[in-house]
Amino acid sequence: MGTEILRLSATSDDIGANAEVTYSIKAGNELGKFQIDRTLGSISVVDDLDFEVCKDYFLTIEAWDGGAPPLSTATMITIELMDVNDNAPAFSQDIYNVLV
Question: How far apart are CA 67 and CA 69, in angstroms?
């Protein structure tokens, strides 16, 4: 896995195996930039993020209990990228000619 950025926690008032919670990313990860640990609820970055390509990600995370039938809940996670100085300055043309 990549760098962990957040750890979620959902609880169930059930007991035993019915109280065990598993997590999944339900929506918002179409570009495959994030991954969630199904048992820990930790969200990690697994691919490069680029502020110039996408500034915000909106993930819908679902938590399921171990009951039969399993019950679930969902929450929205907003991930806002901060821009870093990753672009060097550039001239608008390769050669400049000047007559003085």
Answer: 5
